[in-house]
Amino acid sequence: MIEIEHLTRRYGPRAVVNDVSLTVQRSEIVALVGTSGSGKTTLLRMINRLVEPSSGRVRIAGTDTATLPPHQLRRRIGYAIQGHGLFPHRSVAQNIATVPRLLGWDRARIDARVDELLDLFQLPPEEFRDRRPQELSGGQQQRVGVARALAARPELLLMDEPFGALDPVIRAQAQQDLRRIQRELGTTLLLVTHDMTEAMFLAHRIAVMDDGRLLQCAPARDILTRPASPLVQALAGEQARPFHLLSLSQVADLAQPGTAEGPPLAPETSLRDALAQCLWSGRDALPVAGGGVVTLAALRQAASGETGRTGAGASVKAGVPSPPASPPAPQ
């Protein structure tokens, strides 16, 4: 879907992005992470030519982006930024309709698409269609911003710190909404985030950058257990690694025969949440809905990285690895 080949951007003698090559498959989510100034946002902006490369090439669905007029390219690519960027003088419906109107869609088609997206984002059209952005909560504004980016059914969605301005509770819900909607639409997604926890929840693969270079691009479990460099290991969080590993799997992956007291856990409960319940309740085993138990001993083994079935690579749906069912607690 996206082929980035030896992409470089220089400002004077300094290479902000330095010879980066990366391929993103159709319907895949890849998160770009790294320290401030690592080049991740510049790399993202070169894909839709908000920043022109100094050298290298980007192809989307086989088409060299340099062969397209920038405005035509950008209408094919959804773009969502931190703080949503909504037009304050336009209604919710008018904001979402921005790109379809530029593309010349007729009124009936635009109205149908606006209502479809509002329903998808759980914003009832009759209640939200005519509101202005300042009448919405921060989380609602962010949903509308993502809906606007998806309005013209883009092949690709680029997101630059889209949830950075949200409080932890709303941010967790926004992450769940995005993952659910991406599964429904199958949109290819490239996301910049400074939050490794967010990257591990959302992404099929994580691309770690430093000083303009791509250090490693791999599933979250590989980033945690086989980091390519000390910096990758540091970004993954040495102390948090056991909890990250547990957040990548569900109790269904670790359930074994047996019985235990207490209310059963849903099979999609993360191992991290199961560990929290074991510790809080002082129990050594928890029942799982549908049969079986998850034990404290098995959770400890999973936290060490020794279990076989864990993380985004554990299950596959339509050829794309599935991430966890619920986000880990904010840190």
From TrEMBL:
One of its GO terms (molecular function) is ATP hydrolysis activity. It comes from the Bacteria. Residues 2-236 form the ABC transporter domain. Residues 321-331 have a biased composition (Pro residues). Keywords: ATP-binding, Nucleotide-binding, Transport. InterPro entries: AAA+_ATPase, ABC_transporter-like_ATP-bd, ABC_transporter-like_CS, P-loop_NTPase. The keyword Nucleotide-binding applies. SMART domains: AAA (SM00382). SUPFAM superfamilies: P-loop containing nucleoside triphosphate hydrolases. GO terms for biological process: quaternary ammonium group transport. Transmembrane segments: none annotated. The keyword Disulfide bond does not apply. Residues 302-331 are annotated as: Disordered. Pfam families: ABC_tran. PANTHER family: OSMOPROTECTANT IMPORT ATP-BINDING PROTEIN OSMV (PTHR43117). Belongs to the ABC transporter superfamily. This is Osmoprotectant transport system ATP-binding protein. It comes from Paracoccus solventivorans.
